[in-house]
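Supplementary Methods S3. Input chains for the assembly prediction are listed below.
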Amino acid sequence: MEPRIGVFVCHCGTNIAGVVDVNRVVEAAAAWPDVVFSTEYKFMCSDPGQHLLNDAIIRHKLTRVVVAACSPRMHEPTFRKACAMAGLNPYLFEMANIREHCSWVHEDKLAATLKAIDIVRAAVAKARLLEPLQARMVPVTPKVLVVGGGVAGIQAALDIANAGTKVIMVERSQSIGGHMAQLDKTFPTLDCSACILTPKMVQVAQHPNIELMTYSDVENVDGYVGNFTVKIRQRARYVDESTCTSCGVCLEKCPKKVPSEFDEGMATRKAIYRSFPQAVPGRPVIDKESCTYFKNGKCKICEIFCEPKAIRWDDQDRVVEEKVGAIIVATGMGLIDPHGLGQWGYGRFPNVLTGLEFERLNNATGPTGGRITCKDGSEPKSVAILHCVGSRDRNHKEYCSRVCCMYSLKFAHLIKEKTHATVYNFYIDMRCFGKGYEEFYNRLLHEGVKFIRGKAAYVTDQAYGDEETGKLVVSAESTTLGQVLRVPVDMVILASAVAPQNDAEAVARLFGMGRSPDGFFMEKHPKLEPFATATDGVYLAGSCQSPKDIPDTVAHGAAAASTALSMISRGMVEVEAATAEVLKDFCSGCKVCQDVCPYSAISFHDDTHLAEVNASVCKGCGTCVATCPSSAITGHHFNDLQVLAQIDAAFAWE
Amino acid sequence: MGEEKKNGKKLQLAMYWAASCGGCDMAVLDVNEKILDIAAVADIRLWPIAMDYKYKDVESWADGEIDVCLFNGAVRNSEQLHLARLLRRKCKVMVAFGSCASFGGIPGLANLHCKKTIFEAVYGYTASTVNPEGTTPQTHTKVPEGDLHIPDFFDDVYSLNQVIPVEYYVPGCPPTPDTVMVAVNAIATGNLPPVGSTIAGDKAVCDECLRTKSDKPKIQAFHRPQEIFVDAEKCLLEQGLTCMGSATRGGCGSLCPAVNMPCRGCYGPMPRSLDAGADALAAMTSIVDASDEQAARTKGDQLVDPLGTFYRFTLPVSMLRRAQREH
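Predicted structure tokens for the full assembly:
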């Protein structure tokens, strides 16, 4: 039977109709074979628009529907639902994107109209060959994995746990807390970071619905929305968790000192350590790489002094398998490697610090007990804070790191408070956009901080005069004065760019996520779903998605939690029907498809020598379809013939 | 045909060669003593490689007088086209025999060029050409004895089914003796598959290959066979050889991989394939072990003559079909 195709062209207000002659598209479509109905409407996605679609399907006995409107990412689900309401299989619907792909990117109205006609013609050609597919419902495991124990993960875990759903939190370092735990004060309120964070950390540890696994890594993720199986490696701690009382004697007695990661290498920790005094959990771990006993078989001092006898030299890594319904990735941010920022003197001059190093220097639990000093122990008489080091810079990171202006103001305030130093802020422009931020800036303007509008070009120790001798000289063009300044200071703080974690690529692959051009994890929709990913059931929280300050991070964590919860509480999920399928008659067992699947949906049966796609896991991305050298894999809803018909039609000039 | 044989009438068989190397004809002889079985059931009415025939002999046959024609070689000039059309008229069943007739074959790679550039090379600048007058073949030449005609050389090389309807395909460069006998038996007994079928396997060469494959195959670097010591057990693709086995129809018994040579793809595209070269290229590049674009590029550059490798036998029937003409 010949298909009966209906074409519906949307104006999208003036979004499309302002550039594309919608009526001409409708007329063109009416003339094509199998198109039995063709019309336009102002907003196809609106209620009346959907009714129009509904009525036309029934009245004209349509067997295929093409809506020419916006991106399918936006409204494909809307129109699929509308088709289903009228009794048409939703996979017999095809969307032609004449907004993002046409009207929004073109000015020439005639050319845009002709292009819109081409796009719709291609969609009609594909629609002709569409086949009905059935989506399937699967039950959900009511448990959520939260990866990362920073404030985003903490917020998400607590929200979910408080709602009565089980949570597993995995954190790779010894303690939860993340970057927020490293901070002394928070902008703009200047409240103590530890004071507001540690109670939440303790809540996580004590919550009956949260299973906390620190010093652990997620090794493998299998499955699909509602039904993930994750493998978690709990690294050997060499300290028995049930007997250790966290008394801390071992920390004092251990003779081996190594640079502390938590203190950004500015102080030392022991080989047996907890990240910081308020660490959660408080029980220490032995860092096998540094421990003297593991190196040369002698020492065991910690064991000698451990009263509850909690040291376990034979401890092993444990790999546990857990089933969860949703995953929240809250792996946080890193910082740009400051060694690549040589012109600002990092690594060459000891008194050039990164922002995070200064946070530790200023912190009461930090290397100096919170005293702001130069490397030689003296108090700096002048400090320069350089904004946008590596951010807003085409040579490094094009984006704004979003937190630097505010923490630079905070630094300026704290330096003023604790020392008598003159403080200079070298900025491009001040970005103080949050609640109370502009007010904080105004306050700083009256605290005697010197603001120089100009990005620092370089930091040097080459003195041009007596006042520069023995100082670090910051060179910058003040764009308000219109002249190049040389400012001698004792200390330079680089507001270095926030960056994706070093292992972001591996983490993205592990959880089946994409990354945006800036390297952060890609959200499903930048505005409407910044907490979801392209993989159903995997959500994002915090600065792993983009640089965020604490309020935004917490909000993002809560948003991810509520999205995960709403999925979990539905109890069932629908899985995509447009999946790949291995045609057994043609599969020759070459295994080429095995490694290309980003969702680990393909398994190989040694007995039959055939590959098989697990349709519940498959996202229909088509990678295996293109890869299969034997043309033995077909991508339902995007098969070769449909796509070729689409290409042929797109180039069939009228 | 089975009927006719019962009636005592032998199968009327024609074999013809067009743009081919003669290997397909040798393949028929390669069935050894079984050639006598063929002779027992068939009258060989035309076989230029073995016996002398003239055009007029073929022209003198009645239409449909011949039962089966095994046509080997691609079609690249007017004489071959004429014979293909003539034989089509005279024969009930037309079989594209060998890779050239089936897909264009090795001669099909000439579609990367055109008549003009080929003539410029062959009659101009190849190392062995001595042609100070720059003479090139002309279709008509007047000599004292009269007019000479030679066939017109086409810009394109065609597979047989691009110029005449074809009933069956017997792929291979050349078809193996087993494939030949399967085809001959099918013809002799009348036990023929549906029209349009290829008489070979439905699965890829990989299915017949006994080499061991990793669960997640990766290519570290591309090599040519003479550059490495080939591991006799391990999948050739994983050793970096551009083995076409996974993108090539089986039925050959995986002869080349069995002797450490990568499959060259002579049995042609898989049944559902739209472009064997793209299939192989997509597969191989998908499993190149490269962490970033630069690494992938560096490894990709190790591929020598990718077009000639991936489309060695199938360029004329591929989606590419030919290189864009210069004129």
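The beta strands of chain B are 11-17, 42-46, 66-72, 75-77, 91-97, 140-143, 146-149, 153-158, 168-170. Chain B is about 30% helix and 15% strand.
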